[in-house]
Specification:
single chain; 194 residues; 7 helices; 40% helix; 19% strand
């Protein structure tokens, strides 16, 4: 079954020369091999301001780059988010992107008094691929994967995305053989549309 897939490349370096970029490319190739339709949002190449107030978050006009990203996210049935772990979390630029793109009126409707908000992006699934220098098991079990859990619970599930799967890739500066295995693994995930 063909799926519409949005790849969100969250690495803030626009030069595209990191392992996370290679992973996203491998995933996209796998998705094409699986006859899925893919669109990519490269956050480092977008022009948008950071939101600085509740007023901005609720009422500022969407910049054109954000509006186009929203069109891709609505089109997609499955989101695949790639980012490196920086200081225990996602890079600030990716967080700023999510703050811009997932605003009231697009991602959820504001709650009326005595009621819950309405999740406007239901019916979509996601995969989060996080690269890091430490072993992935250390991040998951010692540090509790706190920033990953925050992205899943406080951002994606908040607007209706689910189910959410994750791939944690540790020791990215290690052996080439491990990198090659991950490139093959994400290619297969892409082919399967997962």
């Amino acid at each position: 079954m063909t799926r519409h897939i949005a790849i969100i490349q969250g690495h803030p370096d626009p030069k595209g020369r990191h392992f996370g970029h290679a992973l996203a490319h491998s995933y996209a190739q796998g998705a094409a091999d699986g006859e899925h339709e893919v669109r990519t949002i490269d956050v480092a190449l977008l022009e948008f301001p950071l939101l600085r107030s509740k007023e901005d978050w609720e009422n500022a006009l969407f910049p054109e780059a954000i509006r186009q990203a929203q069109e891709t996210l609505v089109w997609a049935e499955h989101w695949v988010i790639f980012y490196p772990l920086w200081l225990g979390s996602m890079p600030a630029l990716l967080k700023g992107f999510f703050e811009q793109v997932l605003r009231p009126g697009f991602a959820f409707s504001p709650a009326e008094p005595g009621r819950m908000w309405k999740k406007l992006l239901k019916g979509r699934s996601a995969r989060i691929v996080v690269t890091m220098g430490m072993p992935a098991l250390v991040y998951r079990w010692y540090f509790g994967a706190h920033s990953l859990k925050s992205l899943e619970r406080n951002i994606l599930r908040f607007v209706g995305i689910g189910p959410i799967q994750e791939s944690l890739i540790g020791m990215v500066e290690g052996k080439d053989s491990a990198r090659k295995k991950w490139l093959v693994r994400v290619h297969e995930l892409g082919r399967a549309g997962q």
